[in-house]
Amino acid sequence: MALYRTEGIVLRVRDLGDADRILEILTRQGGRVDAVAHGARRPRAKLAGVSQTFTHARFLLWSGRELATVSQAEIVYSYPALYEDLDRFAMASYMAELAEVVSRPGASQGGLFELLSAGLALVAGIDRPLVDAAARFYELNLLRVLGMAPRFDRCVGCGSVAVAGFSAAMGGVLCDGCLGRDPQAVALSPATAALARHLLARGAAGLAGLTPERRSVDELGAVLAGFLAYQLGFVPKTPRVVRQLRS
Ligand SMILES: [Zn+2]
Protein backbone atom coordinates (compact mmCIF):
# COMPACT_ATOMS: atom_id res chain seq x y z
CA MET A 1 0.00 0.00 0.00
CA ALA A 2 1.23 3.45 -0.87
CA LEU A 3 -0.05 6.86 0.14
CA TYR A 4 -0.60 9.33 -2.68
CA ARG A 5 -2.24 12.68 -3.35
CA THR A 6 -4.81 13.21 -6.07
CA GLU A 7 -7.52 15.66 -7.01
CA GLY A 8 -10.89 14.19 -7.90
CA ILE A 9 -14.62 14.56 -8.40
CA VAL A 10 -16.99 12.10 -6.72
CA LEU A 11 -19.11 10.47 -9.46
CA ARG A 12 -21.13 8.18 -7.21
CA VAL A 13 -21.31 6.97 -3.63
CA ARG A 14 -22.61 3.72 -2.23
CA ASP A 15 -22.98 2.49 1.31
CA LEU A 16 -20.63 -0.11 2.74
CA GLY A 17 -21.34 -1.85 6.03
CA ASP A 18 -22.89 0.19 8.83
CA ALA A 19 -21.00 3.45 8.63
CA ASP A 20 -18.70 3.49 5.59
CA ARG A 21 -19.07 4.69 2.03
CA ILE A 22 -17.39 3.73 -1.21
CA LEU A 23 -16.65 6.78 -3.34
CA GLU A 24 -16.27 6.39 -7.06
CA ILE A 25 -13.84 9.20 -7.89
CA LEU A 26 -12.80 10.57 -11.28
CA THR A 27 -9.25 11.76 -10.64
CA ARG A 28 -7.41 14.42 -12.61
CA GLN A 29 -4.42 12.24 -13.50
CA GLY A 30 -5.29 8.64 -12.65
CA GLY A 31 -8.68 7.91 -14.19
CA ARG A 32 -11.39 6.38 -12.02
CA VAL A 33 -10.64 5.15 -8.48
CA ASP A 34 -12.95 3.46 -5.97
CA ALA A 35 -12.06 4.44 -2.42
CA VAL A 36 -13.51 3.60 1.01
CA ALA A 37 -14.34 6.54 3.27
CA HIS A 38 -14.39 4.94 6.71
CA GLY A 39 -17.06 6.23 9.07
CA ALA A 40 -18.42 8.67 6.47
CA ARG A 41 -22.04 7.98 7.48
CA ARG A 42 -21.53 8.68 11.16
CA PRO A 43 -22.86 12.03 12.42
CA ARG A 44 -20.23 14.79 12.28
CA ALA A 45 -17.80 12.43 10.51
CA LYS A 46 -14.70 14.11 9.15
CA LEU A 47 -15.25 12.53 5.72
CA ALA A 48 -19.01 13.17 5.53
CA GLY A 49 -18.77 16.36 3.47
CA VAL A 50 -16.47 14.88 0.89
CA SER A 51 -18.53 11.69 0.58
CA GLN A 52 -21.22 13.33 -1.56
CA THR A 53 -21.76 13.01 -5.28
CA PHE A 54 -20.31 15.92 -7.33
CA THR A 55 -17.87 17.02 -4.60
CA HIS A 56 -14.51 18.14 -6.00
CA ALA A 57 -11.73 17.55 -3.48
CA ARG A 58 -8.05 16.99 -2.88
CA PHE A 59 -7.60 13.46 -1.58
CA LEU A 60 -4.85 11.67 0.25
CA LEU A 61 -5.42 8.00 -0.62
CA TRP A 62 -3.92 4.68 0.36
CA SER A 63 -3.75 2.54 -2.75
CA GLY A 64 -5.15 -0.97 -2.39
CA ARG A 65 -5.50 -4.10 -4.46
CA GLU A 66 -9.17 -3.50 -5.25
CA LEU A 67 -10.23 -0.49 -3.23
CA ALA A 68 -8.26 2.55 -2.18
CA THR A 69 -8.84 4.10 1.25
CA VAL A 70 -9.39 7.78 1.92
CA SER A 71 -6.85 8.94 4.48
CA GLN A 72 -7.65 12.66 4.30
CA ALA A 73 -9.70 14.90 2.04
CA GLU A 74 -10.13 18.62 1.59
CA ILE A 75 -13.06 20.03 -0.39
CA VAL A 76 -12.15 22.28 -3.34
CA TYR A 77 -15.72 22.84 -4.58
CA SER A 78 -19.04 21.50 -3.44
CA TYR A 79 -22.23 22.41 -5.26
CA PRO A 80 -25.16 22.93 -2.87
CA ALA A 81 -27.18 24.41 -5.78
CA LEU A 82 -27.25 20.95 -7.38
CA TYR A 83 -29.07 19.58 -4.34
CA GLU A 84 -31.66 22.36 -4.23
CA ASP A 85 -33.11 21.99 -7.70
CA LEU A 86 -34.32 18.72 -9.23
CA ASP A 87 -33.52 19.74 -12.82
CA ARG A 88 -29.97 20.77 -11.97
CA PHE A 89 -29.49 17.64 -9.85
CA ALA A 90 -30.75 15.42 -12.67
CA MET A 91 -28.49 17.06 -15.25
CA ALA A 92 -25.42 16.83 -13.00
CA SER A 93 -26.25 13.16 -12.30
CA TYR A 94 -26.49 12.55 -16.04
CA MET A 95 -23.07 14.18 -16.57
CA ALA A 96 -21.51 12.07 -13.80
CA GLU A 97 -23.09 8.93 -15.26
CA LEU A 98 -21.66 9.69 -18.71
CA ALA A 99 -18.20 10.34 -17.21
CA GLU A 100 -18.44 7.04 -15.34
CA VAL A 101 -19.26 5.13 -18.53
CA VAL A 102 -16.40 6.56 -20.59
CA SER A 103 -13.71 6.69 -17.87
CA ARG A 104 -11.44 3.79 -17.02
CA PRO A 105 -9.90 2.66 -13.74
CA GLY A 106 -6.32 3.82 -13.39
CA ALA A 107 -6.04 5.49 -16.80
CA SER A 108 -6.60 9.18 -17.32
CA GLN A 109 -8.22 10.56 -20.45
CA GLY A 110 -6.82 13.98 -21.16
CA GLY A 111 -9.45 16.64 -20.62
CA LEU A 112 -12.25 14.49 -19.16
CA PHE A 113 -11.73 15.64 -15.57
CA GLU A 114 -11.55 19.30 -16.62
CA LEU A 115 -14.67 18.90 -18.74
CA LEU A 116 -16.70 17.35 -15.91
CA SER A 117 -15.49 20.09 -13.57
CA ALA A 118 -16.59 22.76 -16.07
CA GLY A 119 -19.89 20.98 -16.72
CA LEU A 120 -20.85 20.72 -13.04
CA ALA A 121 -19.95 24.37 -12.41
CA LEU A 122 -22.11 25.37 -15.40
CA VAL A 123 -25.12 23.34 -14.32
CA ALA A 124 -24.84 24.64 -10.75
CA GLY A 125 -24.53 28.27 -11.72
CA ILE A 126 -26.04 28.93 -15.12
CA ASP A 127 -29.46 30.56 -15.70
CA ARG A 128 -32.13 27.92 -15.58
CA PRO A 129 -33.17 28.09 -19.26
CA LEU A 130 -29.56 27.26 -20.24
CA VAL A 131 -29.23 24.08 -18.16
CA ASP A 132 -30.13 21.89 -21.16
CA ALA A 133 -27.73 23.82 -23.40
CA ALA A 134 -25.01 23.16 -20.79
CA ALA A 135 -25.73 19.44 -21.14
CA ARG A 136 -25.33 19.70 -24.94
CA PHE A 137 -22.01 21.49 -24.39
CA TYR A 138 -20.91 18.63 -22.13
CA GLU A 139 -22.01 15.83 -24.49
CA LEU A 140 -20.33 17.40 -27.52
CA ASN A 141 -17.08 18.14 -25.74
CA LEU A 142 -17.00 14.72 -24.09
CA LEU A 143 -17.17 13.21 -27.58
CA ARG A 144 -14.38 15.60 -28.64
CA VAL A 145 -12.22 14.47 -25.67
CA LEU A 146 -12.79 10.86 -26.77
CA GLY A 147 -11.81 11.76 -30.35
CA MET A 148 -15.34 10.93 -31.52
CA ALA A 149 -16.97 14.31 -32.09
CA PRO A 150 -19.44 14.20 -34.99
CA ARG A 151 -18.99 16.73 -37.83
CA PHE A 152 -21.40 19.62 -37.91
CA ASP A 153 -19.61 21.83 -40.45
CA ARG A 154 -19.84 19.83 -43.68
CA CYS A 155 -21.84 16.93 -45.09
CA VAL A 156 -19.98 13.72 -44.21
CA GLY A 157 -21.14 12.27 -47.55
CA CYS A 158 -19.88 14.90 -50.01
CA GLY A 159 -18.41 17.88 -48.12
CA SER A 160 -21.23 20.29 -48.97
CA VAL A 161 -21.97 22.99 -46.37
CA ALA A 162 -25.74 22.57 -46.85
CA VAL A 163 -27.20 20.77 -43.80
CA ALA A 164 -30.41 18.71 -43.98
CA GLY A 165 -29.92 15.78 -41.63
CA PHE A 166 -27.69 13.80 -39.31
CA SER A 167 -26.35 10.27 -39.48
CA ALA A 168 -25.11 8.61 -36.28
CA ALA A 169 -23.56 5.79 -38.34
CA MET A 170 -21.71 8.15 -40.72
CA GLY A 171 -20.69 10.47 -37.88
CA GLY A 172 -22.14 13.84 -38.75
CA VAL A 173 -24.43 16.03 -40.81
CA LEU A 174 -25.72 15.17 -44.28
CA CYS A 175 -26.90 17.40 -47.12
CA ASP A 176 -30.23 16.84 -48.85
CA GLY A 177 -28.59 14.87 -51.66
CA CYS A 178 -26.77 12.48 -49.31
CA LEU A 179 -29.63 11.98 -46.83
CA GLY A 180 -30.69 8.77 -48.59
CA ARG A 181 -27.32 7.12 -47.95
CA ASP A 182 -28.30 6.29 -44.36
CA PRO A 183 -31.89 5.05 -43.94
CA GLN A 184 -31.58 5.79 -40.18
CA ALA A 185 -30.59 9.44 -40.72
CA VAL A 186 -32.80 12.05 -39.02
CA ALA A 187 -33.65 15.60 -40.05
CA LEU A 188 -31.46 18.37 -38.59
CA SER A 189 -31.89 22.10 -39.12
CA PRO A 190 -28.97 24.38 -40.10
CA ALA A 191 -29.65 26.40 -36.90
CA THR A 192 -29.10 23.29 -34.77
CA ALA A 193 -25.86 22.47 -36.61
CA ALA A 194 -24.72 26.07 -35.98
CA LEU A 195 -25.48 25.70 -32.25
CA ALA A 196 -23.41 22.49 -32.14
CA ARG A 197 -20.47 24.21 -33.87
CA HIS A 198 -20.68 27.07 -31.38
CA LEU A 199 -20.71 24.70 -28.38
CA LEU A 200 -17.71 22.78 -29.76
CA ALA A 201 -15.65 25.83 -30.62
CA ARG A 202 -16.25 28.30 -27.82
CA GLY A 203 -15.70 26.38 -24.55
CA ALA A 204 -17.77 26.81 -21.40
CA ALA A 205 -17.48 30.61 -21.63
CA GLY A 206 -19.32 30.45 -24.97
CA LEU A 207 -22.55 29.66 -23.12
CA ALA A 208 -22.66 33.05 -21.41
CA GLY A 209 -25.11 35.32 -23.18
CA LEU A 210 -26.23 32.51 -25.51
CA THR A 211 -29.97 32.56 -26.32
CA PRO A 212 -30.49 29.33 -28.22
CA GLU A 213 -33.87 28.36 -29.64
CA ARG A 214 -35.53 25.74 -27.45
CA ARG A 215 -36.22 23.72 -30.60
CA SER A 216 -32.50 23.59 -31.51
CA VAL A 217 -31.42 22.57 -27.99
CA ASP A 218 -33.99 19.75 -28.03
CA GLU A 219 -33.17 18.68 -31.59
CA LEU A 220 -29.44 18.56 -30.76
CA GLY A 221 -30.28 16.59 -27.60
CA ALA A 222 -32.16 13.96 -29.61
CA VAL A 223 -29.41 13.67 -32.22
CA LEU A 224 -26.65 13.34 -29.60
CA ALA A 225 -28.66 10.80 -27.59
CA GLY A 226 -28.86 8.73 -30.79
CA PHE A 227 -25.16 9.21 -31.47
CA LEU A 228 -24.13 8.21 -27.91
CA ALA A 229 -26.36 5.13 -28.11
CA TYR A 230 -25.02 4.14 -31.55
CA GLN A 231 -21.31 4.81 -30.92
CA LEU A 232 -20.98 3.95 -27.20
CA GLY A 233 -24.07 1.87 -26.49
CA PHE A 234 -24.89 4.51 -23.88
CA VAL A 235 -28.49 4.75 -22.72
CA PRO A 236 -28.68 6.98 -19.63
CA LYS A 237 -30.46 5.86 -16.50
CA THR A 238 -30.71 9.35 -15.06
CA PRO A 239 -33.46 11.00 -17.18
CA ARG A 240 -35.70 7.99 -16.68
CA VAL A 241 -35.32 8.25 -12.92
CA VAL A 242 -36.23 11.93 -12.97
CA ARG A 243 -39.32 11.34 -15.10
CA GLN A 244 -40.41 8.78 -12.51
CA LEU A 245 -39.86 11.27 -9.68
CA ARG A 246 -42.02 13.86 -11.45
CA SER A 247 -44.93 11.59 -12.33
ZN1 LIG B 1 -23.76 15.53 -49.15
List the helices and strands and how they pair.
Layout: E1 3-16, E2 20-27, E3 31-37, E4 56-62, E5 68-77, H1 80-83, H2 86-102, H3 112-125, H4 131-145, E6 165-167, E7 172-174, E8 186-187, H5 190-201, H6 214-232, H7 238-246
Parallel strand pairs: 3-5
Antiparallel strand pairs: 1-2, 1-4, 2-3, 4-5, 6-7, 6-8
Helix pairs in contact: 2-3, 2-4, 3-4, 4-6, 5-6
The structure holds zinc ion.
Residues 155, 157-158, 160, 174-175, 177-178 line the site of zinc ion.
Provide a quick synopsis of the model.
The protein is 36% helix and 22% strand. It is α+β, with helices and mostly antiparallel strands and 247 residues long.
- Secondary-structure element string: EEEEEHHHHEEEHHH
| Spatial sequence of strands, sheet with the most strands | 1-2-3-5-4
Distance linking N and C termini: 48 Å
Structural class: alpha+beta
Residue-averaged pLDDT:
93
Question: Strand-residue fraction?
Answer: 15-25%
Taken from the alpha-carbon principal axes, the silhouette is elongated
Biggest beta sheet attributes: 5 strands, mixed, barrel
